[in-house]
Amino acid sequence: MDTTINRRRLLSAAVLSGAGIVGATALGSLAPEAAFAADPVEVDPGAPDPNFVEGRISSITGTTLLVNSSDGSLHRLQITVATSIWKLHPAGFEAIAVGDGLYARGVRMPDGSLATDSLWLNIVNVQGHVAAIGRNVLHLDHKGRRIVAHAVPGRSAAVYNGTPAVSDLSMIKVGGHVQVLGAWHPDTNEIDIATVYARA
Q: What's the pLDDT score for residue 19?
């Protein structure tokens, strides 16, 4: 069974009818790690992936997002009842705001818009050293910049030495190297932690 054709049919139906469509997580994981995974669609080396968009939202009209990518290109994203949305956790359309950064995967429609099946808002993947630790906060040095990473009770998790994720962040040590997947607070140096990877 060709999953690309099935995704196209599902998302085309969602764009055209907007009704009766199951959540798009059936098409793939919405976990933050999935935003940085390779898309199964084959793309020529060096060519942009036509089914992936990154950038910042410049306007929202109905359920259409206008997105400015970092390469200067403009994209129209169609959000449907089949779109799965992540903003530190699974969220609804009301969570989307002008100024949000995003990664999006979906299927190109004949009009050039992207019918979006998975949308990650303000997602970041940061590596750095722990400069200080406060109550529910890590201060990170990242390429000479300070990043303030907030632990969100009930949301944030830690993975130590590749073991399963736990909610206990207490084994993170000052001076240790960490990788943090999280949600950026636009136009600040602050993020909320989804998952922090560290050595115990």
A: 36
Tokens 């997002």 correspond to 65
What is the distance between the alpha carbons of residues 12 and 100, in angstroms, rounded to a whole number?
25
Are residues 165 and 159 in contact, defined by beta-carbon separation less than 8 angstroms? Answer: yes
Nearest Cα residue to 189 out of 116, 131, 118:
131
pLDDT surpasses 80 at 47: no
- Residue for token digits 């950064």? 101
Cα–Cα distance for residue pair 28/15, rounded to 1 Å: 19
123 forms beta bridges with 183
| pLDDT digits 0-9 by tens, 94-119 | 999 999 999 999 888 889 999 998 99
Q: What is the fold of 3-121?
A: OB fold (Dihydrolipoamide Acetyltransferase, E2P) (2.40.50)
